[in-house]
Automatic annotation (TrEMBL):
The gene is LOC110793495. Keywords: Cell wall, Cell wall biogenesis/degradation, Glycoprotein, Hydroxylation, Leucine-rich repeat, Membrane, Repeat, Secreted, Signal. This is Cell wall hydroxyproline-rich glycoprotein. The keyword Disulfide bond does not apply. Residues 52-69 have a biased composition (Low complexity). It is found in: Membrane; Secreted, Cell wall. Residues 1-20 form the signal peptide.
Amino acid sequence: MPTFPLMLSLLLLFLLSTEAAFGVGLGLGLGIGGGTTGGGGGGVWVGGGVNPSNSPPQQQEAPPQSQQQPPSPPSPSLSKSYTALQAWKSAITEDPNGVLTTWVGPNVCNYKGVFCSNGDNYNGDYSYNSPVFSSVSAIDLNHANLKGILVKELTLLTELSLLHLNSNRFSGTIPQNFKDFLYLTELDLSNNQFSGTFPNPTLYMPSLMYLDIRFNNFYGAIPDDLFTKQLDAIFINNNQFDGQLPQNLGNSPASVINLSNNKFSGGIPASLGFVNSAIKEILFLNNQLSGCIPENLGLFSDITVLDLSFNSLMGHLPDSLSCLEDIQVLNLAHNKLSGELPDLVCSLKNLLNLSIEYNFFSGYSQKCTNLFMRSIGFDISLNCIPGKGMQRPPPECYGIPGTDSDSCFRIPSGKPLVCGSLLDLILGNIPLSP
Ligand SMILES: *[C@@H]1O[C@H](CO)[C@@H](O)[C@H](O)[C@H]1NC(C)=O
Ligand SMILES: *[C@@H]1O[C@H](CO)[C@@H](O)[C@H](O)[C@H]1NC(C)=O
């Protein structure tokens, strides 16, 4: 992990404050750790807390300990940057806002969208043994509406730590040598026209924390390594990815994983139920996932948002959902789930929204009735619940999908097991009581 000089941290804070809120619904903010400790890597904080977007930009004030430097000739790093940025400029064919008209001359630090940092207070790490050097540390061309491609020369920007290109018209693939970006912590290529299979160079960027490639045309399977990598946030939603989800999905150290609006098929990986997961928000919305919700899902997790909606999941809900103590949004709508919606789920104390519409549920228990009164989003329409309005026409409820098979194995017990006893059972602490 590289450390950041204070100047850079403040710059990042400013950049991020202009577009920090990338989450929907729960005040998800993205921030870079404060500058004073120097250990700041990228971080995604979910669900409240201090959101950098609410604090005023702090870049006006010069950091107290930095001395005014006399103007110095461009460092070797900057002349390489010139080569890189000019090569890229000539691969950009449309620039309707005239952003690149500022990209002339050797002083790349004055180019619009290009941000430099002065490396002279490189946090005491003199293993660099470097003289005063200035280098391009960030590129932020969000919403520039540029059309073009990425070029391999960009890796001449060896100190780059942020590349934000969201909402442009870049196409083609990610150059293979992008793996050489040793200090890139944030890559945002969202809302472009990139295509090809999963951009593997991202897996080799040793400092990457935030990967956002949503709203592009990437296709094919996603690699297992995506979920072993030390990422904080994985946004790959709204692409054409397909195939089965890697079995190690639940092992990911990321706090947010958005897989929505792709074409993934097969089941939800069982790992989501077995490991002590770091995942806080995980969205599978609108894929082609089938099978059962994995037994044990929720057991060891701090998930706050779980969106399984618009898939083809079947069977009864696992009792382990009762362990989702922090869950706020549980979206199960538009699947083929059945059985009774248990107390265990309805009494989850942090629930803000429980969507079960468009399934085959045959009823809900007493505690669920309270949800109507707690003004919690609780939509039960288009199920098979007798005596309730807005249900499926009865013939649809005769052949409930998945009930003739034993594919959704459940721990046998007379009544649902609350979270604690389920844990004991699984950890072998006590025998199953009758
Ligand atoms: C995930 O992607 C879906 C589909 O674009 C979007 O509706 C949802 O808000 C996203 N959630 C997060 C946390 O990114
Ligand atoms: C609950 O979630 C559903 C589906 O995401 C949404 O349509 C609805 O507006 C939400 N309701 C509340 C009260 O938040």
